[in-house]
Amino acid sequence: MTEYRSEKEFLRSLKRFNALSSKQYEWHTGYSEKEHTCMFGHHIPSEQLYFKKPLDMEGERKVRVCMECMEKLVFLTIDSDRHSKQLSEQLFRERHPTPKKIVKIMSR
Ligand SMILES: [Zn+2]
């Protein structure tokens, strides 16, 4: 972790980052026996965690990004300023509305 203090913190921002994409084009973690190349030119060795995103409905075209680049990408897009933070939070909430508190419904 370079940009984030913990994995939890990174995953929180990754969810907000994913809220920018349509659901079928969200980023997923990948793990493969094959070697891949990160979109920013880095080598992704086999059996190392990376991130992938489909570019078409069939999932035939994909982009792959190494862990380090993903962190930077998420940080720059989501956490680099207040506006992008708030906007992505809003998009995330729209997609994942928090369920109403049971207690509130009961006390009506
Ligand atoms: Zn990379």
Tell me what the structure shows.
The protein has 108 residues and is an alpha+beta fold. The protein has helices spanning 7-18, 67-79, 82-95, 102-106; strands at residues 28-30, 36-37, 43-44, 50-54, 62-66. Helix 1 packs across helix 2 and helix 1 (7-18) crosses helix 3. The longest helix is centred in the last third of the chain and has 14 residues, at 82-95. The chain is globular. The termini are far apart.
**How far is the N terminus from the C terminus?**
46 Å
Shape: globular
How would a crystallographer describe the biggest sheet?
A: 3 strands, antiparallel
Bound ligands, named by name, code or SMILES: zinc ion
Helical residue percent band: 40-55%
Number of domains: 1
State the low-pLDDT regions, or none.
none
Task: Indicate the radius of gyration in whole angstroms.
Answer: 17 Å
DSSP strand content: 15-25%
The sequence of SSEs as H and E is HEEEEEHHH
Short summary of the structure?
By secondary structure, the protein is an alpha+beta fold. It has four helices and five strands, in the order H-E-E-E-E-E-H-H-H. It has one domain.
Observed structural traits:
single chain, 108 residues, alpha+beta, three-stranded antiparallel beta sheet, two-stranded antiparallel sheet, globular, binds zinc ion
